[in-house]
Model the fold of this input.
Amino acid sequence: MIFRQLFERESSTYTYLIGCEQTREAALIDTVKEEVPKYLQLLEELDLTLAYALDTHTHADHITGAGDLRDATGCTTLLGENANSVCVSHPLRDGDEIHIGTLTLTALFTPGHTDDSYSFVLKHQDQTYAFTGDTLLIRGTGRTDFQNGNAADQYHSLFDRLLQLPEDTLVYPAHDYKGWMLSTIGEEKAHNPRLQVRDLPAYVQLMNNLKLPNPKMMDVAVPANRRCGQALEQH
Ligand code: FE
Done:
């Protein structure tokens, strides 16, 4: 497997490149529009063909590169079916499998941060990788106070789904603001302060009292991301 964790500084976004060594097919998870030239360069340098550009959810803090990547490479773009995207190639459903050559990503519906949040799970050579979007962050969880977010849904996505993965599952989130790059399910269970709650009502209360400001780009990014990060076509 070819694997790269890429970082975009403005929005502190992690983008993941996953490639199959045998077929040279690749996927990019959570791309940023401004970084598309860099992704195209890296794909060429690593001799990879982009098969998929997928997003874990409709982002509020940056514009996706998915549409531009599809124009440049002919790749398929994927986003959860609840996103109401007018441009995505295929809407994702829980349990969908995405084949990248010999590798398989499984889509897990993990709503809560948004109502269209998905995580992606990959098993390779006895190791499980979880790309958790903004559902499970390192020592945090994604806010649930806008974009049809719901703290109770997130509680179930965390405790009933992601935390049920093997303890040694590698956790790769969509963002980090403090320089954390990688964790495991076991490490987050033990040390993530948001996961130390007693029960569902305690989690909902915690999440509903965060009082965070809206992201700077929210008004621009959300509508743009419903169009795969591209301007409306003029007719
Ligand atoms: Fe987000």
User: Anything to note?
Assistant: The mean pLDDT is 95. Residues 20 and 102 are 6 Å apart (CA to CA).
